[in-house]
Amino acid sequence: MSSLAEAVLALGYGLASALVPIVNAEAYAVVAGHRGGHALVAVLALALGQTAGKLLLFEAARRGTGRLAHKLAHRSRSGRAAAAGARWAGRTQRWLSRRRSALPTVLVSATVGVPPLAAVSLAAGTAGLRHWEFAVACLLGRVFRFALLVLPATLA
Known about the structure:
The protein is mainly alpha-helical and 156 residues long. It has helices at residues 3-19, 25-35, 39-63, 66-75, 79-97, 99-112, 117-127, 131-155.
């Protein structure tokens, strides 16, 4: 497969995985590493696709359309789980509203996955974080995460 085709495929897969939880970008990264060839292109395109998808979530939350997703997510939980989720969301919202802690939180979430980047994307959108700051932190974290996954697979 050419590097352009690999890049387009990885970009699309990254975008899909950012929006659909059952589509696993990490698995794609490992497979790209085992195939060899254009693993770096795949990492960068996958990270760009993921960042674009998380920016869609970020913007949806910023414009207020995240309220519907929030209501639907809490509707299926028990009372205790919904209360715990509300407490966690409140703490994350406060954490992301502070300039000193917002970008490190996004960067850690994008790199490690804790707290989940989808939730951080929604919370960051409502907390007033700047688009470009969120995008840069998310992209850097995703590139680092996927590179760490691809490296052992490439060397094996």
